[in-house]
Amino acid sequence: MELKLGTIDVVLIADNAGVASSTFSFQASGRDIGSGKRAEEKLDLIRATHVFQRDAQGKMHIFHEHFSIPVAG
Questions:
Q1: What distance in Å separates the CA atoms of residue 71 and residue 73, rounded to the nearest whole number?
Q2: Which of 28, 34, 43, 47 could cross-link with 1 by S-S, CB 3.0 to 4.6 Å?
Q3: Whole-prediction pTM value?
Q4: Interatomic CA distance for residues 21 and 14, integer angstroms
């Protein structure tokens, strides 16, 4: 398995909230797809977004996360 992480951009959108976005690529070989079969999976570009919110104790938590894979055009 191989994972390559791009730059992570973080923006504070309020005193108690922030957004982190990044891109990464992923490749796995020999992945079990059931019935004794194995396959290779390769995703060249994945976008990730995480929205954080600060709790009453001041600790940041992931409030929402989203991953997307662009459709080839």
A1: 6
A2: 28
A3: 0.76
A4: 16
